[in-house]
From TrEMBL:
Membrane topology summary: Multi-pass membrane protein
GO cellular component terms given for this protein: bacterial-type flagellum basal body; plasma membrane
GO biological process: bacterial-type flagellum organization; protein secretion
Highest taxon above the source species: Bacteria
Record's protein name: Flagellar biosynthetic protein FliP
Pfam families, per database record: FliP
Protein's organism: Cytobacillus depressus
Transmembrane segments: 20-52, 64-83, 160-182, 194-213
The family this protein is said to belong to: Belongs to the FliP/MopC/SpaP family.
Gene: fliP
Length: 221
């Protein structure tokens, strides 16, 4: 510890500034998975795509790597304006020594707060604010991230489940029709999934299902 303090005492301000920036970069990288999952649209996208695979009953097709990769790049595409605003208002001025670390944090939080508050239900946000006994914020900037992030997360999960329910309906109808036909033919020992799976895949391909799902996700933001 003494050697660490001696290094900073004997270093020039430029070296200390560079060291602080490196520590900041490492901290952001270590928190990147949590930021990606809970503060962006990644949660909604990956849940909806998982619902699509479950509704199709295709087991592991497409595999998890494809679903997560597609969700990741869709999240980057949707969040690009937010990331660009953070870079212009917080990161670039910080690296140019125009603002300090605390100011950069405050400026970087504002674009995320604006995005999350636009997709957070008031009831969910009020739940965490009431539990923390915090006063109702007068502006988006005044909303604490400790309350906004979990409220945004549960709002995204609810929205994703609502979209997933709508996706399930047409495939459920196919399963019911196939099961009724098999029972009327006395073929009760034949699993309906074996017969309905090709029809569900055919329907999904004919209507260009992946295009419709991705378009719906993009329009939901």
């Amino acid at each position: 510890m003494n050697e660490f303090m001696e290094f900073f005492n004997n270093s020039s301000p430029a070296n200390v500034s560079t060291s602080v920036k490196l520590i900041l970069m490492l901290t952001v990288l270590s928190l990147a998975p949590s930021i990606l999952i809970l503060m962006t649209c990644f949660t909604r996208i990956v849940i909806v795509l998982s619902f699509v695979r479950t509704a199709l009953a295709t087991q592991q097709m497409p595999p998890n790597q494809v679903i997560i990769g597609l969700s990741l790049f869709l999240s980057f595409f949707i969040m690009a304006p937010t990331f660009q605003q953070v870079n212009e208002e917080a990161l670039t001025p910080l690296f140019n020594d125009e603002i300090n670390l605390e100011q950069a944090y405050e400026k970087a939080a504002i674009p995320f707060k604006e995005f999350m508050s636009a997709h957070t239900r008031q009831k969910d946000l009020a739940l965490f604010l009431d539990y923390a006994k915090a006063e109702p914020p007068q502006s988006i900037e005044a909303i604490p991230l400790t309350a906004l992030v979990p409220a945004f997360a549960i709002s995204e999960i609810k929205t994703a489940f609502q979209i997933g329910f709508m996706i399930f309906i047409p495939f459920l109808v196919i399963d019911m029709v196939v099961a009724s036909v098999l029972m009327s033919m006395g073929m009760m020992m034949l699993p309906p999934v074996m017969i309905s799976l090709p029809f569900k895949i055919l329907l999904f391909v004919l209507v260009d299902g992946w295009y419709l799902v991705v378009r719906s996700l993009l329009q939901s933001f």
